[in-house]
């Protein structure tokens, strides 16, 4: 079993990891790093610093705020209750009606509201007894099931590369999405009143600019015209919403681009959308809500995790699931091999990387643990010099060639890189290197570029895109 204590040393203080070349990590002093330091082809990659852009927009809004004059007005009780109902819902409207001021204004309304709130409280206690996962609400609950470290506070919420061309979408904490390409002068910014608390992104394969967004209000689908010179698209996003299927924590297109799968921590069903027809079919299952989805590159399987220890692997030809459980916690992150023969995952409660193998539609079995996932790497936290690495994993990213596996961690800032070799029924994993940021930066989210295109002629094997906690985007090539 691979372990972190066999990794090479971290870069020296004041140095930054810039690339992996011929199996060796290359580092330079921070003041000597530029785009050409690691690979000439990175010169065409856009320079991105989301933290800097957010600061700039905040300063612009601050200068404009002095023009706005808010005049306080007195509202009647009925107006306050009505406004609260439409803005925040029935329960908050009852709370407004039950407060002391309302009780003095109209004792009957105040007493009735308190009685109804007590009934709501009893109903919630019964519901939470049978479904304890529903106790968690709000932004912090959503962040618990995303792949981004410290999601509520992170400047970068999500990074997703287009599978067929040089285009990357980056969601920021201000609920905007910026789309970068090899044309640096044009950066479309996608923003909508419905687009709040973005959790996941997915480009539709074989389209130039169709982007699915999972957020607090369900799923939005943008269509970005690649030939437009306007940075703010004129068309608005299409909202996909069904019942209580929101907030959406995961969106994934099928590899052929025909179907869109969505998951919500408020719904036990996975929804399979035909976006062109605006129709959906639920994959119904009784139990805890779904949290994370991952479609195998072959399209033959869909993995869906839940907020409990249960996860399922669906056979997409007949939409029949295999039900699996983990001993402790929930599934934190999953990735597929390009052949769909291996599913790697990590959980919230232990520090191991697991492998679930598939061969000819049967789960690969071991003599010792039949039909079970096998631990293949120990990710336990260890000290290296004055720095700690490893611990509970946050997210996995596997390059399209299945040569490099990247892992971020919840408690430590560095990224662990493993070399991987995949055969049909076997997978080998060996330590490669650690990637560190500048100063106290933490790795917030990671994504491998899915299509290098002509850049592969420069002998770049793959490029890992890293979103650091400072808002800085780094491209880490493997040459």
Question: Which of globular, elongated, flat, extended, rod-shaped describes the shape?
Answer: globular
Strand count: 33
Tell me about the largest β-sheet. Answer: 6 strands, mixed
Assembly state: single chain
Low-confidence stretches: 59-69, 364-370
What does this structure look like?
This protein has 479 residues and is α+β, with helices and mostly antiparallel strands. Among the domains are: 1-38 and 333-479, no CATH class; 77-139, no CATH class. 15% of the residues lie in helices and 37% in strands. It has six helices and 33 strands. The protein has helices spanning 50-65, 77-88, 90-98, 100-105, 107-130, 139-144; strands at 2-3, 15-21, 24-29, 156-161, 167-172, 177-181, 189-190, 200-203, 210-215, 218-223, 238-240, 248-253, 260-264, 270-274, 279-283, 290-295, 301-306, 310-315, 320-325, 331-336, 342-347, 352-359, 362-363, 374-378, 382-384, 387-389, 393-398, 404-409, 415-422, 427-435, 443-448, 462-468, 473-478. The strands form nine sheets. Strands 1, 20, 21, 22, 23 and 24 form a six-stranded mixed β-sheet that branches. A four-stranded antiparallel β-sheet has the order 4-5-6-7, covered by helices on one side. Strand 22 (352-359) and strand 23 form a beta hairpin. The longest helix is centred in the first third of the chain and has 24 residues, at 107-130. It is globular. The relative contact order is 0.13. The model is unreliable at 59-69 and 364-370 (pLDDT under 50).
């Amino acid at each position: 079993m691979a372990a972190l204590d066999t990794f090479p040393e971290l870069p020296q203080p004041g140095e930054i990891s810039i690339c992996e070349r011929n199996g060796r990590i290359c580092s330079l002093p921070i003041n000597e790093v530029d785009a050409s330091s690691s690979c000439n082809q990175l010169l065409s990659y856009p320079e991105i610093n989301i933290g800097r852009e957010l600061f700039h927009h905040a300063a612009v809004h601050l200068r404009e705020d002095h023009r706005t004059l808010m005049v306080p007005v007195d509202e009647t009780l009925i107006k306050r209750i009505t406004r609260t109902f439409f803005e925040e819902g029935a329960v908050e409207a009852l709370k407004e009606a039950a407060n002391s001021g309302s009780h003095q204004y109209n004792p009957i309304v105040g007493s009735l509201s308190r009685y109804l709130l007590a009934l709501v409280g009893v109903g919630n206690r019964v519901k939470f007894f049978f479904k304890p996962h529903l106790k968690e609400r709000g932004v912090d609950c959503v962040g618990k099931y995303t792949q981004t470290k410290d999601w509520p506070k992170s400047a970068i919420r999500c990074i997703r590369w287009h599978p067929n061309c040089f285009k990357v979408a980056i969601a920021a904490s201000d609920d905007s999405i910026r789309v970068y390409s090899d044309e640096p002068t044009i950066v479309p910014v996608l923003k909508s009143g419905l687009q709040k608390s973005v959790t996941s992104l997915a480009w539709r394969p074989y389209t130039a600019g169709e982007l699915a967004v999972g957020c607090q209000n369900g799923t939005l689908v943008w269509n970005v015209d690649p030939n437009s010179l306007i940075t703010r698209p004129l068309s608005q996003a299409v909202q996909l919403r069904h019942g209580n299927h929101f907030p959406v924590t995961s969106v994934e297109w099928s590899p052929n681009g025909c179907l869109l799968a969505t998951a919500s921590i408020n719904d036990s069903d996975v929804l399979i959308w035909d976006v062109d027809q605006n129709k959906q079919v639920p994959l119904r299952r009784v139990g805890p809500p779904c949290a994370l989805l991952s479609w195998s590159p072959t399209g033959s399987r869909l993995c869906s995790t839940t907020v409990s220890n249960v996860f399922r692997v669906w056979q997409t030809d007949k939409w029949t699931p295999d039900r699996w459980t983990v001993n402790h916690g929930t599934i934190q992150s999953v990735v597929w091999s390009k052949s769909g023969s291996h599913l790697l995952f990590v959980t919230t409660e232990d520090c191991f990387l697991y492998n679930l193998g598939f061969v000819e539609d049967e789960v690969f079995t071991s003599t010792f643990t039949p039909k079970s996932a096998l631990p293949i790497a120990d990710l336990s936290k260890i000290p290296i010099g004055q720095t700690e690495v490893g611990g509970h994993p946050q997210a996995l990213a596997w390059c399209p060639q299945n040569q490099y596996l990247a892992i971020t961690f919840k408690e430590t800032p560095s990224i662990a890189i493993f070399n991987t070799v995949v055969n049909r029924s076997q997978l080998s994993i060996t330590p490669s290197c650690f990637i560190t940021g500048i100063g106290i930066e933490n790795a917030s989210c990671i994504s491998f570029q899915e299509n290098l295109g002509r850049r592969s002629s420069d002998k770049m094997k793959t490029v890992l895109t890293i979103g650091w906690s400072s808002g800085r985007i780094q491209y880490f090539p493997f040459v």
